[in-house]
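A quick aside before the break. I want you to see a complete sequence-to-structure record at least once, exactly as it would be stored in a machine-readable document. Don't worry about memorizing anything.
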Amino acid sequence: MMIHMPGESFQGPLPATTDKIRALEHELQSYVYTLSSEIGERNMFQYNNLLRAAEYIGATLTDSGYEVRRQAYDVRGQMAENLEVELPGTERPNEILVIGAHYDSVRGCPGANDNGTGVAAMLALARAFSKTQPLRTLRFLAFVNEEPPFFQTRHMGSRVYAKRSSEKGENIILMISLETIGYYVDEPGSQSYPFPLNFIYPSTGNFVGFVSNLQNRSLVRQFVGSFREHAQFPSEGGALFGWVPGVGWSDHWAFWKEGYPAIMVTDTALFRYPAYHRGSDTPEKVHYERMARVVLGLQQVIAAIANNRQGIGL
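That is the input. The structure line, written in tokens, reads:
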């Protein structure tokens, strides 16, 4: 395993909240409330809600100035769809950076943090970059069917998408999976881990995590180092064995399967969040101000990747 990351995780009181953070906080809250409160549980078993969520995400991306492309496929007689928008690179358009989040929720769960927060971050990042001209192509994705019973099956939306990208020979230089990123607490003992990580990482759940497999260890180090350079927010990173519980538990796994580099950004989900996969995963439990700080940091990291003429190094 590789657990030593460049720089130092931010410690102490967070800097004063700026107008920029407040504005993003309200934007993120609006997205999460719509998905988890107004729409609610959304999956192939609550199919109308899944369709409503897809329409909402598509309309939001359209309002940001994008043309939405839909990848529809059959799942047991019903259509599921991934949604995609793209900002073509001005100098290296064939080098693609994917920023994605799944928009379905597990059965019986309104999915505020899992994964309304990931979708909200994707929508906010897409809007923030919409009027920029990156050197590399930015592609923003909303994936369907990440949750059981479709997780890591042929019906998983990101699996369908990554296979299509591989068949087309697309050069995806990095996939960033935004997975359950809205819950942060300062109490000691609020964070747990599977063995052997419980001997390594902090026991306070106030940080954002960056996770990948051993094949992408250099990438994780660069990503965490860049985040720590641009954001004053606690952060931890690790390139870990794939068998460790949680390491492959999101859409980045699907891109690993096709040989693409991919990293998960997460608050560590079930290892911290008491409402994980429960009916109590409701929007008032999300910490939007802290989430806004994370998203602003990610925006800077993504810009650095997209515009680095020396390669994808950060």
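Two observations worth writing down. Helices lie at 19-39, 47-63, 112-129, 157-167, 217-230, 252-257, 288-307. The beta strands are 69-75, 78-87, 92-102, 136-143, 171-179, 208-213, 235-240, 262-266. We'll return to this after the break.
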